[in-house]
């Protein structure tokens, strides 16, 4: 099977979160990808929100999709070399749970160096038949 890919550049601003979700939903519908749409929307929200919260700035970031052999890979690539960290849960701080959700839902995830910055990625396997 060939690999299908898509990428969109976004600014690290709040309105990019729904834009990213809508773009991903449209692409995956066109690819007829079987992954759970609600899981995908939540994961995209977390990845994009992390860029907005922790990178910010004027530079754009790339939201990237790849689909091959039933596996879906979603990533965000930005200019910051600071790697994501899974925080300890803190009842005093309701924020900081996003990467824990990514870890719980995605089949695989990680971060890698990318053009002087980083790429945070996750993968979802095809659903069981």
């Amino acid at each position: 099977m060939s690999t299908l890919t898509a990428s969109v550049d976004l600014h690290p601003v709040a309105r990019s979160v729904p834009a990213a979700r809508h773009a991903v939903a449209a692409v995956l519908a066109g690819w007829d990808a079987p992954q759970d749409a609600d899981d995908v929307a939540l994961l995209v929200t977390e990845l994009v929100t992390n860029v907005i919260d922790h990178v910010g700035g004027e530079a754009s970031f790339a939201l990237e999709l790849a689909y091959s052999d039933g596996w879906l890979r979603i990533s965000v690539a930005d200019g910051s070399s600071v790697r994501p960290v899974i925080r300890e849960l803190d009842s005093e701080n309701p924020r900081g749970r996003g990467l824990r959700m990514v870890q719980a839902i995605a089949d695989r995830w990680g971060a890698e160096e990318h053009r002087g910055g980083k790429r945070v990625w996750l993968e979802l396997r095809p659903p069981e038949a």
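Residues 4-124 form a domain with the Heat Shock Protein 90 fold (CATH 3.30.565.10). DSSP finds three helices and five strands in the chain.
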